[in-house]
Amino acid sequence: MVRRRKVALIFALLAGLSACEQKRVEQSPAQQEATSQVFNEKAAEELTRAVWQAGEAQLADTRAAVEALQRAVATLLDQPTEDHLESAKLAWLEAHRDFAAALPYIQLAFAPAELRGQGRQLLLALDSWPVQPGYLDTVPGYSDSGIVNDTAIELTLANLRKQHRLTAHEEASTGFHAMEIMLWGPTSERTAEQFQQVSEGEKPEALAANRRRELTRLIGRGIAEDVDGLARRWPTGANDLSRHFLALGPAARLQQIRAAHTRMLDEELLRRLPESSESDVESGRAADSKQALLHMLDTLRSNWVPAEGRGLAELLLDRHQVAALAQTFAELEALLLKMEDPIELAELEQLAQARELLEQMAGLIAGTAQVPVAEDEITPVALPLDG
């Protein structure tokens, strides 16, 4: 709720601009049609900067949540109790949801062609899934499996980054879902006792229990390093990621946001909706796939059709498309809330309906989906081309 209020406040600052535009209501139909075709450059400038600032605020929330996760993991390793294990899990859920809410902004920040490779590398480090649990820890029938048992791998963060997705994409050793395996366990039966430090033998650091502790700590450190690095690159004062975005004119920024958010729907949200019982699930052990989806959608909605102030839809879509998009957001959220949690237990009919709504949403945001209306009511929105 704090995140939603922050984003709403940023977009509410644009409400004054929207109020000025209400004068159109007093114009004649011919004047309204002529005015509706005019690109409002000032509003676009204000709104695109507000979107970037909202991304900075969300990254700050994500960084704070990741720091809380690190503290919870440190407490668990210092005093392995069931209560501390539960606290670490709750901290993971909070951090994972905040990160999910930041994903639309991250897609935007790395949209320029020269940055896409960096963006892909960052997201693979933080959000690689599905994860092969036996790559990290002991699994039933394979008592010596996983990095926790492979003493040939020295436990350092640099080595974990080298091992990440080394020979297959399921071989994740960094990021949120590697941490999910460590906290919930390969079979979702993790106990605090499995994090107890063992001091017996000549090389206690080589024991699986102690390596499990160190592996968990290093995964948390890696997440914190990656999120902190991103957050430091974001502010306009850093003149880093923002430089590429703000160098564009307002119209080109709107087009970049539209393209990034359309890609977000196609590549991130749709793939998180399982098509069958055999589909990969993003966070099956933590049962957080549905909540992650809802947080991504909340960000997109606050950007496009916010409860207060002007949104992207008002500048890029006609009023019929705006209404259809708002309705699609509401229907999809209501449908997701009705679904079983974890989402893989939802009815296949519900999942298919959710996919249809996401595809409809992508078409509306891209501007390719038309809403049937009378011809005399159509008011297309045209953006000027930036050179």
Automatic annotation (TrEMBL):
<feature type="domain" description="Imelysin-like">
    <location>
        <begin position="58"/>
        <end position="367"/>
    </location>
</feature>
<dbReference type="InterPro" id="IPR018976">
    <property type="entry name" value="Imelysin-like"/>
</dbReference>
<protein>
    <submittedName>
        <fullName>Imelysin</fullName>
    </submittedName>
</protein>
<keyword id="KW-0732">Signal</keyword>
<dbReference type="InterPro" id="IPR038352">
    <property type="entry name" value="Imelysin_sf"/>
</dbReference>
<dbReference type="Pfam" id="PF09375">
    <property type="entry name" value="Peptidase_M75"/>
</dbReference>
<dbReference type="GO" id="GO:0030313">
    <property type="term" value="C:cell envelope"/>
</dbReference>
